[in-house]
Amino acid sequence: MSTSRDDEMITTPVTADLLRGALDVERTAHGLLPHRLPEWARRQIPDDQLAQAEAQPSGVRLAFRTRATRVELDALPTRRAYRGAPTPADGAYDLLVDGVLAGRTGVPGGRVRTVDLADGSVEVREGAPGTARFAGLPGRDKDVEIWLPHHEITELIALRTDAPVEPATDRGRRVWLHHGSSISHGSDAAHPTEIWPALAAASGGVELVNLGFGGGALLDPFTARAMRDTPADLISLKVGINVVNTDAMRLRAFVPAVHGFLDTLREGHPDTPLLVVSPILCPVHENTPGPLMPDFADGAVRFKATGDPAEVPAGRLTLTVVRDVLARVVRERSADDPHLHLLDGLDLYGEDDHAELPLPDAIHPSPAGHRRIAENFTRLAFGARGPFGR
After folding, report:
1. 198-209 confidence digits (pLDDT tens)
2. At 101, is the secondary structure helix, strand, or coil?
């Protein structure tokens, strides 16, 4: 590994072998940009929202072994904002030592990319790179992970330490490949290690590859093929909310799309435990179809469903319909696929959970809601009787 000394710190270029949780990397004018979909799949993305979401490194982390007590990471963030909405907080960088949180900071500066939801226009304000700094780490050999901000694009420039680093060794953990919507992406979670898939992965003792895409869990064939080609010991598919809130499909298209996605996954993972997870409770869409629209009343972002429940018998989708469909599909397919399982999203977050921990914007769980979902997923999926249990 090429290094150079500067002010008693060792500068190490960030390379793909230092990353976990990314399916691809791109060289930019500034450094290395992790991607959660491969380049061939990115060429097939039809909208800007998914293009931005897959480049936001939810679940992506640097992983290395070192005796360093000081660690610095130069990065260029691209922050997302919405016109008329409050400016989002800077993303967090979480540093773990041997799996335990040992530091948390941010990177000032960077670009700001403002989207106007009314007409789809985008304005980009350029900014300079910054540095995430961590100090006071134990001066022994240790595994270090830096989890990148889950909701902002992050170009990695250089890693500096006061002792040499080498890529982390394989700990022999099972790899969990997960695909879902903005809830899996981490919307409204405060920190990258506190999105529900990261919390569940830590509790389950597995390595996470998180393909949770805000607004992008739409049964896209390129996502299915990317998952088919990604090594994994455990696979989960949490689907439904985006299909409803984008009003992207009717019942006639949704059923074969689910079958097609599962067929593609099974081409590459014929015997891998595969868990289909239906939507968590979301009152605005339980019995009302999409599309979903933002509401910026009182300066806070909330969402409302605008479809007509009277059109459900004609094939419009609601979460209630989607849960029934997914249960039926898994029940029918599991007769020939004993490794296919269903987890009802209401068991992850249902009526009692909503009463205690309501959805702040009517769609996404709070940080406490992410913890609740993670706790329930760990118990139901990774427990001794769960499909991911040992």
Report:
1. 999 999 999 999
2. strand
